[in-house]
UniProtKB/TrEMBL annotation:
It comes from the Bacteria. InterPro entries: Acyl_CoA_acyltransferase (IPR016181), Glycosyl_Hydrolase_84 (IPR051822), GNAT_dom (IPR000182). Pfam families: Acetyltransf_1. This is GNAT family N-acetyltransferase. The lineage of its organism: Bacteria, Thermotogati, Deinococcota, Deinococci, Deinococcales. GO terms for molecular function: acyltransferase activity, transferring groups other than amino-acyl groups. The keyword Transferase applies. Keywords: Transferase. Residues 72-200 form the N-acetyltransferase domain. The keyword Zinc does not apply.
């Protein structure tokens, strides 16, 4: 039996763990990264710190088994991270080699710390919000992913934003089907990733 609730600071370690254990296109990425916190620094931690009203978790007797994290104004969120989140991490992690082909998996992530991706303005015009959702295997099925998504989408909707987008690994076909089932449409593809959006 899972309970859905708003995420709390005490959940940070669990969010980082789930981010790692789903970080290989939905599969466990523990064996890929030497530093188990790197994925969480990029894709989980910032939301708990700077968008806590849009962070929700599923919890059972074994602990937190899934989350959905979002931000209603992506550009504002990116600007906030540039000022308050990335600088301490840049001091902690060295600049990776300039040649992307020479980088280790960890260095590919630290490159995102030193040069975070900026969402194209053309995407933000209609889909200014964004989200991430990850569930461990024990939390998958039974409509729990949809319950998480519905909760976040309603929280975003009441802020008045017109739409939300997300990115998913190109190999994660199961997740792509899930998003389509929830009314998301494919907006574009880049190497290794697919972008989806939905009007609110």
């Amino acid at each position: 039996m899972f309970t859905l609730r708003r995420a709390q600071e005490a959940d940070r370690a669990a969010l980082y763990r789930i981010c790692l254990e789903t970080g290989d296109s939905g599969q466990d990425a523990t064996a890929i990264y030497a530093d188990p916190l790197l994925l969480g620094h990029i894709y989980a931690g910032p939301y708990l710190s700077f968008a806590p009203d849009f962070a929700f978790v599923l919890e059972d007797e074994a602990g937190v088994g899934g989350y959905v994290l979002g931000a209603p104004e992506t550009r504002t969120f990116e600007d906030t991270l540039e000022q308050a989140w990335w600088p301490p991490l840049r001091a902690q992690f060295p600049v990776p080699p300039a040649d992307p082909a020479a980088r280790t998996p960890d260095e590919r992530l630290t490159a995102l710390i030193h040069q975070p991706r900026r969402t194209p303005g053309t995407l933000l015009a209609n889909f200014p919000a964004h989200l991430h959702i990850d569930l461990l295997p024990r939390a998958q099925g039974g409509g729990r992913g949809r319950q998480l998504m519905d909760t976040l989408l309603e929280a975003l909707r009441v802020t008045g934003v017109p739409g939300v987008h997300l990115g998913v690994g190109e190999r994660n076909v199961r997740a792509q089907g899930f998003y389509r089932h929830l009314g998301f449409e494919e907006l574009g593809r880049t190497p290794g990733a697919v972008t989806f959006g939905r009007r609110l």
